[in-house]
Amino acid sequence: MSQPDVDTWRTQVRQWLATVLEPGRAPESASEAADLAVFHNLSDDDERLLLQRCRAYQRARFDAGYQALTLPRASGGAGLSAAHAAAFAQEESAFDVPPSTELISVTVRLVAMAVSLFGTAEQRDDYARAFLRTDLLACQLFSEPGAGSDLAALRTRARREASADEGDGRGGDEGDWVIDGQKVWTSGAQFADYGLLLARTDPDVVKQAGITAFLVPMDAAGVEIRPIRQMSGGASFNEVFLSGVRVPDRLRIGRPGQGWEVATTTLAFERTASGTGSRRKGGTFSDVLALARSLGRTGDPLIRQRLADLYVRSALRAATVDRVARASAGGGRPGPEASLTKLMASDLLTRTGQTAAEVMGARISADTGEPDTFAWTQHLLGAPGYRLAGGTDQIQRNLIGERVLGLPGEPRTDRVPFSELPGS
């Protein structure tokens, strides 16, 4: 099927956005400046209200056919090019879009995509559509206390057992899985309906080959969620403990042992979402420039040099995002190039906070009452976490070196060579 002309389609998008959103506007005063926090620091009640706003917009977007733009039609997406997705993001930026949350991003951009690509037709009908529309919310149960950067070292186990109703004359399913383990750094687990979980199902093979993915109901017996209090004050993340959690085989995503492919594809979507810049995270160059002007620091030659460096890096990142998007147009699944934009995004976020701190000097250490100064502490405290989400900066450099530049990988005996992994 031929793709619609981007410019004509862009006009249609703009007209539709005007029917569901208010036009965006610049802050009229310093007190109306944008939120500088990288991660939300909200109470549960405020988080629920924000989720309601986000879900209303996501449902309208899904119903209008503007969700999962680059996902192939056969998998439930719109089947459009990266150029169409970029045009939508540009048009959307001119409107007052509800600020997204980690849980909304994980549901729509990660879990929904994974189920769409690896799920059965029934799973796509029952879950992928509901995730894309945010009728159901989903968190990501990947990281563990001993398996962060080395995700394949996860220790959560799933063992196959007979279904409770198997052999009772009703046909049953293909048995249940019983899951035991612990996950950590799970965004929005307390509000999620399901979690996309990785578990080791075969301990006798090379570690990447013995992992299977599941959708786990977060209200299932044996699931315990404990919030993690952040140094910035909020509790965006959680620990999740699983004790004898029984999951039917129909909630397995992909084949047994295909979990590593599910994981790497999902993480590639995460890196793409993190690197695109279509959603604001913390402060930006414009915020730092406004800060420097308000404090009378733009005449300082060192500050001017730092501001110029930050501006150049911001422009380079935007150009790289556009280049990567065009290079991967029509692919459905993101390629390893997503590590480039993710690495640049985390680096720019860190440098933005550092430059703001240099502009403020001692003001960063205490609330002096001056508008939009001490608020930068939320950016500074949150930025390091962004260098971990979706794979650490070090992991991104390894991926870029091995899969983009074609450099030889480190000698390892505990993993399957990349060329031998499914879907490589």
From TrEMBL:
Coiled coil: none
Any one GO molecular-function label of the UniProt entry: flavin adenine dinucleotide binding
Protein name: Acyl-CoA dehydrogenase
Keyword Zinc-finger tagged: no
Family per record: Belongs to the acyl-CoA dehydrogenase family.
Keyword field: FAD, Flavoprotein, Oxidoreductase
Sequence ranges assigned to domain Acyl-CoA oxidase/dehydrogenase middle in this UniProt record: 139-239
Positions of the Acyl-CoA dehydrogenase/oxidase C-terminal domain: 257-405
Cofactor: FAD
Gene Ontology CC terms: plasma membrane
Organism: Streptomyces montanus
